Amino acid sequence: MAKDPVERFLAALDPDHREAIGAKPREEQEQLAAAWERELESDDELDTLDELSPPAAEAEAARRVLNREAG
Asked: What is the DSSP letter of 14?
């Protein structure tokens, strides 16, 4: 498993978003990855999902972060 938060965040994204975010500057990727990690740590609903499917929890947190950024 990738230890770098940006790599983990990119891996949680769907392929289209992965490509788009991967093209952004590293600093922006790091900010998004930090927001993603905060989302994973702070949301109790994701904790429950993480117990059932860690990849699904990571993907849901990534989706939420991208939705906030777009909005």
From this structure: -
